[in-house]
Structure formats: C-alpha cells, structure tokens
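Ticket #4471: structure output looks truncated?

Reporter: J.K.
Steps to reproduce: submitted the chain below (313 residues) through the standard prediction queue, then opened the result file.
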Amino acid sequence: MQVKKAVITAAGRGARLYPMADTVQKATLPIIDIDGLQKSVIQIIAEEAIESGIEEVCIICAPGDEKRYLQSFKTQHDYLLKSYGKELWAEKEAAIIDNLLNRLSFAVQEEPHGYGHAVLSAKEFVMKDPFLLLLGDYLYVSNGNLRCAKQLIELAEKEKCSVSAVNPTIEHLIPNYGTLKCNPVQNGVGVYSIDKIIEKPSLSKAELMLQTPGLRAGYYLCFFGMHVFTSDIMDVLANSYNAEVASENPLLLTPAQQELADKGKYLALEVKGRRYDTGKKYGLLKAQIALGLAGNEKERIMSDIIELLAESK
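Returned output as attached by the reporter:
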C-alpha cells in the first residue's frame, strides 16, 4: 500500500471569520511559513502533503472557487518572477508553486451537505487508492524533523490500513472535537486500535464511553485533523448518502469512520506535533506565532513578543 494522493477540504466559507470570509476564501489568507516566506494557508497545507511524499493533490471547493484558487497561485507565481526574478529565493518559491500546480486538481462540492459529503466529492479523484485527508483550515507544526503527515503515512503504509492522527486533549476541550475510545497496540508507542468514535461529546458521555487506557487522568484522544483512508471510506459514504435528506441531515464523516472501525483494522496514531485552527478567533495569530517560533527567525519572534508584552503592560 502506497499513499500518493491527498484530499484537502476547503469548500466552507468560514462562518467564524465573517464578514471578511464572505468575499475571500479563508484558505487564501496570507501567513508567513516556517521558511520565512509569505504564503496562503492552502499552499502551506498542500506543501505539508507534497513534502510527505504525496504526488497528487485534490482540493474540495465550492462552485467557482477552483478558478479563484488557480488565479491566486498563478498571480503569486508571476509576481515573484516579475518583481524578484533575480533573487534566488524568489525563483525557488516560484518553482515550488509550479510544482504544486502540476500536481493540483479540484473537485466541486455543489451543495454544502456536510463534511462527509465534502470528502465524498473526491470519489472520482481517489478511485480505489488510499489517500491522505487534510482540513483546509488546519496548519501543523511537527515536534521533530518528520512532518506530521509523513508520520501518519508511514504507519498506514506499514500496517496497510486506515489511520487517523490523534492527540491527548484535556477534558474541557473535547466538546470541540471528534473523540475516541481506543486500545493501545502492543509494541506500538502512541499507536491505538480504534474502538468507538463520538463527534463532539459531552464530558459526561465521554466519561462513560470514551476512556482510553494509559492516558493521564482528565485526558481523552481527539482527532488531530488529518487521516489516511483506504478507498473503503468512499464506499461507506456513498452508501450512506441520500441527496433528498442531506439538506436537513448532513452527511457526517464520523459515522463512516465508526463503520470502518466496526468492520476491520483501523488505527490511531498519536502524532508528534501540534495543530492550529486558522478558522477560529485569533486562530491565524496563534498559528503565525507557532510557525514563527518553529522557523529560522525564532529569536527575532521571541524578542518581538516580549517587547509587545512589555509595551502592553
């Protein structure tokens, strides 16, 4: 099993970022990456996939947005060469964008019928191949040299099954995330077999149904925002989708994941890294600080933060 395809879900308009996101796709918002270059959020996510060994990337978007994404990438590429063409860093960045465009395709989610429906929109792209699934508003920072997505892909390829990234989350935050009950896999550090999944559970329900052995008291395993799925997930979603009722009962991904866990081998990996939700209030700010502290200008960023805190005091 080789994972060479990635799907990035970016069809949502980002209600949490209104009114700005009403006219601008949240995934095209600018942010400075670890390498010190300013990029769009969606480009950084795509690079997470490509630098983890992915060869083809499909962005799930709303109708008409595919042209906007392409125009955004091409404008950035042309501007780099026109304005900084003699600079080595600009040529390098333009080449990165070229590489992305050569690997990029789009699938349109015609109607907003839920996250599971967004994933199902990539069925023709996925075909019968395994694929990496990333959220269009999450940025990831690894704790080491191995990217978060690469950690996930390596385990999926080794075990030849679907694998979801998780991290231990303190109990008062679990109503914000899909939460899992898992069993540790013998001889697998941070590797678990998935038993039960509940989307955004109450704490009382989690205490009764979602305790994972070996975690610190008050902590639960929650989804990290990236998955590697076999194509089986598409079959489950397709069998569950009913267009006539989808507007009132959106197609969710979590029940399909539970069905995978019930039917066969489905693992969770405690990824060594952190995620940052750029779609929530101050999310971009927090993500920017994290990327800055993980990059080559760490000392400058820390100095600026200290100076700002001193001024505000």
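Triage note (M.O.): checked the attachment and the full token line is present. The chain is about 40% helix and 25% strand.
Status: closed, working as intended.
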